[in-house]
Amino acid sequence: MIKTRPTVLLYDWDNTLVDGWAGVTAALNAAFAAFGHPLWSVQDTRERARVSLRESFPIIFGDQWEHARDVFYATLSEQHLQHVQPMPGADEALAAGTPWPQGVVSNKTGRYLRAEVVHLGWGNYFGPVIGAGDARADKPDPAPIQLALSQLGRDADESVWYLGDTALDMQAARAAGVTAALIGDAEH
Predict the structure, then answer these.
(1) Are the C-beta atoms of 133 and 110 separated by less than 8 Å?
(2) CA distance readout (Å), 41 to 49, 128, 176
(3) How would you classify the pairing of strands 18-19 and 179-182?
(4) What is the rounded distance in angstroms from the CA atom of residue 31 to the CA atom of residue 9?
(5) Average pLDDT per run of 10 along the chain, which is 188 residues long?
(6) In the chain, which residue ranges form alpha helices assigned H by DSSP?
(7) Is the pTM of this model over 0.70?
(8) DSSP secondary structure letter of residue 64
(9) How far apart are the first and last CA of the chain?
(10) Measuring CA to CA, which residue among 30, 29, 26, 20 is closest to residue 83?
């Protein structure tokens, strides 16, 4: 149970504020097809995609991971904005959060993340928008949360809430010394 009122709200992105899984799945499947891997459904992606590309692709594609990355990003660049949709209640939650500084910390690559924020018209809600590759390491490392707090001129403490939908998000929040707030049922 959370006992401290927030002074800062930081959010995960995918499956917390937006549903962009169709776009991520299309890009993954383009890379998988290029290497003869089985394709994933959107549900597979929801269940399996947790860590950033720079951590997962070397494991999946071995020494060809950089080529797979290029295929993934080419497809994502073409399609991701067509697929991204707000999660139910996200607009209302962000509007309700305006009394506090708000930011995003995600394992989605920063330039795609920032393009989605603009596409949805949510730029005014957020100070920092930190994606994969923006900090020295990606979640679950605390570095992206620390970078967001640095941009806000804030120190980590329990009044900073990090809202996310996965165990990885909760791990990152705890490692950063902020309050971890689980959104959803964490069925995945």
Answers:
(1) yes
(2) 12, 32, 33
(3) unpaired
(4) 35
(5) 87 93 92 96 88 89 96 90 93 97 95 95 98 96 98 97 94 97 74
(6) 21-34, 42-48, 53-61, 65-83, 90-96, 110-119, 143-152, 167-176
(7) yes
(8) G
(9) 21
(10) 20
